[in-house]
């Protein structure tokens, strides 16, 4: 159940201007970050970002390296509170959210993956993500939350130096 504060959010939002880069092995983090940075007007690619990273085989280390890569390119990086409503508030404000999730039981490929939350539908209780090789993955709030919890509820925003997150203004 979402808190009452989320009732003031639009019923449906989708940030269609967020580019999509299909993810290949150990390129999920760079692909997701490239989507976010290009949406902010920074021209980069998963390959250029991948060349800057050291720990492509460890998701926890990669998360830290992705944050550092965004900062090197002049972006601020803001961790989000580990609550679904924080993700919704940011997406409603036009901010895609980079998350680390464990989408399910996978016997091949990485057990966790990076994805970008680009939309939601409150009535249908669904999120829209750029994830893996899927440009527009629809996940129920419950399924996303389970996978996100298994991924440690890691979520960040990348914003230009002159902007603050919507959640910094008293929202969840």
TrEMBL record:
It comes from the Bacteria. InterPro entries: Peptidase_C39_single_dom (IPR039563). Gene3D superfamilies: Cysteine proteinases. This is Uncharacterized protein. It comes from Azotobacter vinelandii (strain DJ / ATCC BAA-1303). The lineage of its organism: Bacteria, Pseudomonadati, Pseudomonadota, Gammaproteobacteria, Pseudomonadales.
């Amino acid at each position: 159940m979402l808190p009452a504060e989320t009732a003031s959010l639009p019923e449906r939002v989708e940030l269609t201007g967020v580019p999509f880069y299909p993810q290949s092995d150990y390129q999920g983090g760079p692909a997701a970050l490239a989507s976010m940075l290009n949406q902010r007007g920074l021209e980069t690619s998963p390959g250029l970002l991948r060349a800057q990273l050291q720990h492509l085989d460890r998701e926890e280390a990669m998360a830290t390296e992705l944050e550092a890569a965004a900062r090197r390119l002049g972006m601020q990086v803001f961790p989000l509170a580990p609550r679904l409503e924080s993700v919704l508030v940011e997406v409603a404000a036009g901010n895609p959210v980079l998350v680390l999730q464990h989408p399910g039981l996978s016997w091949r490929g990485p057990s966790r993956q990076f994805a970008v939350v680009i939309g939601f539908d409150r009535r249908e209780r669904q999120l829209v993500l750029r994830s893996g090789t899927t440009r527009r993955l629809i996940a129920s709030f419950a399924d996303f939350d389970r996978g996100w919890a298994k991924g440690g509820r890691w979520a960040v925003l990348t914003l230009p130096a002159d902007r603050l997150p919507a959640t910094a203004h008293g929202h969840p």
